[in-house]
UniProtKB/TrEMBL annotation:
<feature type="domain" description="FAD dependent oxidoreductase">
    <location>
        <begin position="5"/>
        <end position="324"/>
    </location>
</feature>
<comment type="function">
    <text>Selectively catalyzes the oxidative deamination of acidic amino acids. Suppresses the level of D-aspartate in the brain, an amino acid that can act as an agonist for glutamate receptors. Protects the organism from the toxicity of D-amino acids. May also function in the intestine.</text>
</comment>
<feature type="binding site">
    <location>
        <position position="166"/>
    </location>
    <ligand>
        <name>FAD</name>
    </ligand>
</feature>
<dbReference type="InterPro" id="IPR006181">
    <property type="entry name" value="D-amino_acid_oxidase_CS"/>
</dbReference>
<dbReference type="GO" id="GO:0005782">
    <property type="term" value="C:peroxisomal matrix"/>
</dbReference>
<dbReference type="GO" id="GO:0008445">
    <property type="term" value="F:D-aspartate oxidase activity"/>
</dbReference>
<dbReference type="Pfam" id="PF01266">
    <property type="entry name" value="DAO"/>
</dbReference>
<comment type="similarity">
    <text>Belongs to the DAMOX/DASOX family.</text>
</comment>
<feature type="signal peptide">
    <location>
        <begin position="1"/>
        <end position="19"/>
    </location>
</feature>
<feature type="binding site">
    <location>
        <position position="223"/>
    </location>
    <ligand>
        <name>D-dopa</name>
    </ligand>
</feature>
<feature type="binding site">
    <location>
        <position position="278"/>
    </location>
    <ligand>
        <name>D-dopa</name>
    </ligand>
</feature>
<dbReference type="InterPro" id="IPR023209">
    <property type="entry name" value="DAO"/>
</dbReference>
<protein>
    <recommendedName>
        <fullName>D-aspartate oxidase</fullName>
        <ecNumber>1.4.3.1</ecNumber>
    </recommendedName>
</protein>
<keyword id="KW-0274">FAD</keyword>
<keyword id="KW-0285">Flavoprotein</keyword>
<dbReference type="GO" id="GO:0019478">
    <property type="term" value="P:D-amino acid catabolic process"/>
</dbReference>
<keyword id="KW-0576">Peroxisome</keyword>
Length: 341
């Protein structure tokens, strides 16, 4: 069999990281990324990019922990290399704060992040509305630089990038042996997934270089995440809202909520507003599928539906998707050698 041809549909975080894992695990594959949008016009460009896992109710916790651990380990190594500034990956310390003490004082990921511990009474004095808190150090991706860094690595490995909207995965059948679906919320139309829905998120980016620690209200409603150059303030979670237009009232509300946690943000400047649609499901869709039409087969690997936590688990799910692509290729090689006999 000639070099297997793999098409990855989608150039957000999930498509690019999956393409990179395929190149790393299958150097003989010819990989192309096909997408109607590239950075800076994807949902992934809007994300705050902090590594604090969101929980997927339909996925076993040990699997989610494995995905998070693989992602943390991968990005920690980048943050500790000469590539750190170009890739936008950096360590950030701060606090997750609770209005009421939670039942479980340590989440499943507490031994993956660095230095996890309950906040001291003295630290909690900073947040008089909150009773309990967790202090830790995690990683943050400044999203557009990280996506560009991934694109650069893919191009260096010979991966072709095509601007193309795919209306039906069967369009790719004559050109590619395996198709990998990383279309994010686009999978709702592309493969008619009714279990996939948008959770709209609006964030505000500001210049406030004195803010060095992250602050996250544990219900996820309000957060302050300092990046290398800008601070991301959030947020909103609006289920089934497909609107990508920023809402000025929401911007003011986010800003007011963040100022109540970090009053110095009153002096922030250069405000920019971003909106994205989190591709949400009960669980990430990460599986192989053999589509069949009139006796013809198309091998597909799905990797989408990362909702509010794509950055936190992307490397783990990309590695698993690449493993599934490897299984497809092994099956193709098996059937082509049987055909020769
Ligand atoms: P996308 O980035 O949307 O990429 C999908 C790609 O597929 C795009 O390139 C699109 O053009 C392409 N595509 C779609 N349909 C087609 C088609 N038919 N043909 C061709 N191409 C197609 N996660 C965290 O872990 N930490 C955070 O702090 C965080 N903050 C967030 C804040 C906000 C406001 C939002 C909205 C999200 C946040 N997330 C966060 C979640 C994270 O952004 C997502 O989980 C992640 O970006 C999903 O990546 P993706 O590649 O699946 O989707």
């Amino acid at each position: 069999m000639a070099a297997p041809k793999v098409a990855v549909v989608g150039a957000g975080l999930i498509g690019l990281s999956t393409a990179l894992c395929i190149v790393e695990t299958c150097p003989s594959c010819s990989v192309a990324v096909l997408s109607d949008q590239f950075s800076p016009n994807t949902t992934s460009d809007v994300a705050a990019g902090i590594l604090i896992p969101h929980t997927y109710p339909g996925t076993a916790i040990h699997v989610q922990k494995q995905w998070f651990k693989e992602t943390f380990t991968y990005l920690f190594a980048i943050s500790n290399s000469a590539e750190a500034s170009e890739s936008g990956i950096h360590l950030v310390s701060g606090w997750q704060i609770f209005k009421n003490t939670p039942k479980e004082e340590s989440p499943f990921w507490s031994d993956v992040v660095l230095g996890f511990r309950p906040m001291s009474k003295a630290e909690l004095q900073k947040f008089p509305q909150h009773q309990f808190g967790q202090a830790f150090t995690t990683l943050k991706c400044d999203c557009p630089p990280y996506l560009l860094w991934l694109e650069k690595r893919l191009k260096a490995a010979g991966v072709q990038m095509y601007t193309r909207k795919v209306s039906d995965l069967w369009e790719l059948h004559s050109e590619y042996n395996v198709v990998v679906n990383c279309a994010g919320i686009g999978a709702h139309h592309l493969v008619g997934d009714e279990k996939l829905f948008p959770i709209r998120g609006q964030v505000v980016e500001v210049h406030a270089p004195w803010v060095k620690n992250f602050i996250r209200d544990a219900d996820g409603s309000t957060y302050i995440y300092p990046g290398i150059h800008r601070v991301t303030l959030g947020g909103t979670r609006e289920k089934e809202n497909w609107s990508l237009s920023p809402d000025p009232d929401t911007t003011k509300d986010i800003f007011d909520r963040c100022c109540s946690l970090e009053p110095s943000l009153q002096g922030a400047q250069d405000v920019k507003v971003k909106v994205g649609l989190r591709p949400s499901r009960q669980s990430v869709r990460l599986n192989r599928e053999v589509l069949s039409q009139g006796g013809v087969k198309l091998l597909v690997v799905h990797n989408y539906g990362h909702g509010a936590g794509g950055f936190s688990v992307h490397r783990g799910t990309a590695k698993e998707a690449a493993r599934l692509v490897g299984e497809c290729i092994a099956a193709l090689r098996g059937s082509s050698s049987r055909a020769k006999l």
